[in-house]
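The methods section describes the discrete structure representation at length, but only in general terms. An entry of this sort, consisting of the sequence and the corresponding backbone structure tokens, reads as follows.
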Amino acid sequence: MIPVAGSAYTYSYAVLGEIVAWIIGWDLILEYAVSNMSVAVGFSAYLQDLCENLFGFHLPNHFAFPPFPAPGGPAGWFNVPALIITLLVTMVLVRGSAKAPRPT
């Protein structure tokens, strides 16, 4: 029996089996990770632009850009603002799901 509030994983598990559901589950995790990273890099660019225009604060390129940039873009060692933004959003989501009511 398939639950009413299912997902792609639940549906594939019920219809196609455990192996296909496992592959789809990992595919969903990788898809979410890639989309989160691209959004974090975009937010990082906005945050850096805001800090530079409002406060005159500019991070060094080593800490402001990803190690594998788009062609023609600046390269860095690690995108620290993207990491901070991702950690803050993760903390908000974890705290929110911890406070959510549990089903009885």
User: Anything to note?
Assistant: Residues 18-55 form the longest helix (38 residues).
